[in-house]
Design a protein that fits this description.
This protein is an alpha/beta fold and 429 residues long. Helices cover 20% and strands 22% of the residues. The strands form four sheets. The protein has a six-stranded mixed β-sheet with strand order 10-11-9-12-13-14, with helices on both faces.
Length: 429
C-alpha cells in the first residue's frame, strides 16, 4: 500500500550517570576517587534511503528510541556510549513537529542525513570533584536526560512539473505517452491512487521530471476524499499543467473544472497559485472539427488573457504534445533549477535546551529598546530573517514568549527601534 504520511514518537538516549568509587589497592590506605564518566546517549538520526518510496513501514512501527549511555565504572572506566538510532526515509520526506505542524527538516536537496534529537551527555564521575578540601567526594554527576518528540512525516514528491486535473481527464495517459512512466490506466475515477513520476526527454533540450498527481475533486483542500494526501505532492512542483477534458465527454465544463482546481489549490496553499500554469486541453480528437462553437477557443479566450497558455492536445494520439512539452521546458529554464525545499520552522535545540533561559527586555532611551538572552541569541542563529517564513517564525517566537507584551508594558510605540544582538527592527503594532 502506498503511504505518504505517518506520525511517530522519537526519543534519544539518556546519558549514563557518572560513577562514585575509590581506589582500593594494596599498600594504599586511602585511595582517591576513581569513578568514571557515564557514556553519551544515542542520537536520533534521519537518513535518506534511495531504495524507499513510501512511508508504509512507519504505519506499523511508531516508536523509535535510541540506546542510553552506560554508567561509568570504577578505575576511571568510561561508560559505553549508547548506539545512535538511524531512521531511513525516502528522499523528499518532510519532518514536522506534530503539535505545531512546523517543519523541523526537509530530507531533500543536499540534506541526506540529519541529527534530529541529540542524546544526553554522560555525567562526570566523582574523580572530577576532588579538591584540596574535599578529597573524598561522594558525588557524581547524573547523565543528561533524553529528548523526546512526536513528529509527522510527509512524503512530497520531487518533480519539476505536476499534472493536475479532475479524475479521468487523461493525466496518466499523457504521462505514459511522454515519459518512461508506466502508470495503470483505466476508464474510471481515481485510477491513480499514488503519484507517478516520469522523466521527459526532449531532443536538444535538458528535459524534466513530471508527476501525475492523482485526480482532485471539489473539497479536496478540506480533506474530502484523499484531498490532503494528493495536494501535498503539488507543493514541490515548479510548473502546473492543468489537464482538462476539452471535449466534455463526461458532461463537465472544462473552464469550470480549471477554476475549481485553482480554488482548491488556493484554499490548501495560496503560494501554489503563484506558480506558472499551462493548460493542456485534452481529448481534442473527440471534438467535431466543423463545430463552430469550439470549446478550445472558449478555453483560450478565458485563460490566455490571464497569461495562461492553452495547448490543444490528444494524449492518446500524441497530437500537440511536442509543442506543450517544449513550451514547459523553456518555462522551467527561466526558474530556479534547485528543487523546492521547505525551510526550517521548528528548531529542536532552541526549544528543548534550557527552554526557561532568562531574557531581558529593557528600555534604553525614548524610542529605543533592547532584547537579550541566551535563548534569543540561539534562536537568531537558527533563523533566516531574510526569508518570509523565517521572519514570520521570528515574530511568532517574540509573541509566544511574551516579549511583545513586555515591550508594550514598557511603553513602546509604533516606529520605535528594537535592538536584538546586532539587528535593529522598527516596531509596528
Amino acid at each position: 500500500m502506498f503511504a505518504d504520511h505517518a506520525k511517530i514518537f522519537i526519543k534519544s538516549g539518556k546519558g549514563g550517570d557518572g560513577h562514585v568509587s575509590f581506589r582500593r589497592e594494596l599498600f594504599v590506605a586511602a585511595g582517591g576517587p576513581d569513578g568514571g564518566d557515564g557514556g553519551k546517549g544515542g542520537d536520533i538520526i534521519f537518513e535518506v534511503d534511495d531504495g524507499l518510496n513510501t512511508l508504509t513501514d512507519f504505519r506499523h512501527v511508531r516508536k523509535y528510541v535510541a540506546e542510553s549511555g552506560e554508567e561509568g565504572g570504577k578505575k576511571n572506566q568510561h561508560g559505553k556510549n549508547g548506539a545512535d538510532l538511524i531512521i531511513k526515509v525516502p528522499y523528499g520526506t518532510v519532518i514536522k513537529e506534530a503539535e505545531t505542524d512546523k517543519v523541523i527538516t526537509d530530507m531533500s536537496g543536499d540534506n541526506r542525513r540529519e541529527v534530529i534529537l541529540k542524546g544526553g551527555r554522560g555525567g562526570k564521575g566523582n574523580q572530577h570533584y576532588a579538591t584540596a578540601t574535599m578529597q573524598v567526594p561522594k558525588y557524581a554527576q547524573p547523565g543528561k536526560e533524553s529528548k523526546e518528540l512526536w513528529v509527522k512525516l510527509e512524503l512530497k514528491v520531487i518533480a519539476d512539473v505536476g499534472l493536475v486535473g479532475f479524475p479521468n481527464v487523461g493525466k496518466s495517459t499523457l504521462l505514459s505517452h511522454v515519459s518512461n512512466a508506466t502508470p495503470k490506466i483505466a476508464n474510471y475515477h481515481f485510477t491513480t491512487l499514488n503519484p507517478h513520476l516520469g522523466v521527459v526527454d526532449l531532443d536538444g533540450a535538458k528535459g524534466f521530471v513530471m508527476a501525475d498527481i492523482p485526480g482532485l475533486i471539489e473539497g479536496a483542500s478540506e480533506g474530502i476524499g484523499l484531498g490532503h494526501e494528493f495536494l501535498r505532492h503539488i507543493e514541490r512542483t515548479k510548473v502546473l499543467i492543468h489537464v482538462v477534458d476539452a471535449a466534455g465527454t463526461e458532461g463537465r465544463d472544462p473552464i469550470e473544472d480549471i477554476n475549481t482546481i485553482n480554488a482548491e489549490l488556493e484554499a490548501y496553499n495560496p503560494e501554489l497559485l503563484k506558480r506558472p500554469q499551462v493548460i493542456a486541453a485534452n481529448k481534442t480528437d473527440a471534438i467535431y472539427e466543423g463545430d463552430e462553437d469550439n470549446p478550445v477557443d472558449k478555453i483560450k479566450a478565458e485563460f490566455e488573457p490571464k497569461g495562461i497558455k492553452v495547448f490543444p492536445i490528444s494524449a492518446v494520439s500524441g497530437k500537440g504534445l511536442k509543442e506543450l512539452l517544449y513550451y514547459v521546458n523553456n518555462l522551467l529554464e527561466t526558474l530556479d533549477p534547485e528543487p523546492v525545499v521547505f525551510e526550517k520552522e521548528f528548531f529542536v535545540d532552541t526549544f528543548m535546551d534550557n527552554p526557561d533561559d532568562p531574557f531581558t527586555v529593557e528600555k534604553i532611551e525614548d524610542g529605543l529598546y533592547s532584547i537579550e538572552g541566551p535563548r534569543i541569541e540561539k534562536m537568531l542563529g537558527y533563523t533566516n530573517l531574510e526569508s518570509e517564513k523565517g521572519f514570520i517564525f521570528f515574530q511568532n517566537f517574540m509573541r509566544d514568549n511574551g516579549i511583545l507584551d513586555e515591550l508594550k508594558a514598557l511603553g513602546i510605540e509604533v516606529g520605535d527601534t528594537v535592538k536584538i544582538y546586532g539587528h535593529e527592527f522598527d516596531y509596528y503594532a
